[in-house]
Amino acid sequence: MTKSNIFFATDPARLFLPWMSMLMTFIAVLILAAGMTTYSSVTRWQRTVSGSLTVQIPTYTESGVARGEKVDREIETTLTILRSSEGILGATVLSDRQMGDLMTPWLGENAIVTELPLPKLIDVTVDPNGNLDVAQIKTDLAAQVPAAVLDSHRIWLNPLLRISSGIIKLIGFILVLLTLTAAFTVIYATRTSLTVHEPVIALVHMMGAGDLYVTQQYAGRSFQLTLTGSLFGFFLTLPIMAGVSFFIQGASFDFILKPTLSAVQWGVLLSVPFALSVLAFLTTFKTVMVYLKRFL
Asked: What is the pTM of this model?
């Protein structure tokens, strides 16, 4: 790199830009990580439940009396209805062990499922290309097995999808605000630096240096300062993300929110410091060119 003829050591931007870029990168990386984790978790839920339904058959009455053999008859009738319906590939009654695995995140590993008044669950696999008539299945079940409850996972998944969509939009809005803030910060720092060094810039001009030379000096320095601060801000987020991931996994919340990021998502996070530095470079370049053409 060519040595600069502008004495940037006296420039207040040499401290201001790194600190601001560090803070903005810190915030941007954290909210991006939260947004991508949320999106990945909801996508995983949607992919898991999109092709299945669940039928619940209570094993106890509302007054707490066991329904006994009646439950077995209702299960057989329900299986017959489901397996004969168009668009259904199969229906399986979950065993006590499977129920235990299902309830572990809520009740812990030592819970005895057989002693709990849990309903019998029938997992229904749906043909994604089939013509499934959920309303007709509900009608048939209501007529022959009034106690059965057909649960379409989209009933609770759709609100989650709306919430995740709102979170992603909010994150996008925050990122736009951060981008604008970063641009205005660079403009302010650059204009302040130009004012401080105006006599030196005028002297360099008189000695034959063109606008492009001065602009490159400023833009390159802005890129360096921003990249230094941004990388430091990125590395500050790593222990925080590791701590949050450890807490979620330790608290058994990972069935709700999967605290892992793919290689592509890590690549997106790592690109934030460089994207911010490129933004600073381009913003500085434009700001200096406009200033030189207007005032010098």
From this structure: 0.67
Residue among 191, 167, 145 nearest 16 (CA): 191
- In 3D space, the residue among 105, 122, 101 whose CA is nearest the CA of residue 52 turns out to be 122
* CA distances for 13 relative to 3, 20, 214, 259, angstroms: 18, 10, 16, 37
Phi, psi of 150 (to 5 degrees): -90, 125
Q: What percent of the chain has pLDDT over 70?
A: 80
Residues facing 56 on adjacent strands: 121, 149
* Cα four-point dihedral sign 252, 255, 260, 265: negative
Class of the CATH-defined domain 51-152: alpha beta
Structural domain spans, the chain: 8-46+163-295, 51-152
